[in-house]
């Protein structure tokens, strides 16, 4: 039975071949944003498969993902399916989180100057 490990949380879960990464993230209680509930429409569920071989690009991914994202190995968690191999999946940090962290760091540095 293949296993899927999610980063950055490092949670690992057993998977059945054919399950999508989005389905498995819900079982593992790992947050992957979604607005279209798995219909390859919102593009919020982008992940990167860092290790292992997953299902080939679906028609939805071929149509929706930018060439740049495909070249970087990005996939849609709602479309990519587990095969027989273990996978390591990275969920990108949310843009808002990184913006807030940078603002807090800037504020902390300004306070240190006083
Ligand atoms: S959940 Fe919307 S594109 Fe995957």
From TrEMBL:
Matching CDD domains: fer2
2Fe-2S ferredoxin-type domain boundaries: 2-95
UniProt key word Flavoprotein: yes
Entry keywords, A to Z: FAD, Flavoprotein
Keyword Flavoprotein appears in the UniProt entry: yes
GO function terms (MF aspect): iron-sulfur cluster binding
Gene3D superfamilies: 3.10.20.30
SUPFAM superfamilies: 2Fe-2S ferredoxin-like
Annotated PANTHER family: NA(+)-TRANSLOCATING NADH-QUINONE REDUCTASE SUBUNIT, NAD(P)H-FLAVIN REDUCTASE
Official protein name in the record: 2Fe-2S ferredoxin Fdx
Organism of derivation: Brevibacillus laterosporus LMG 15441
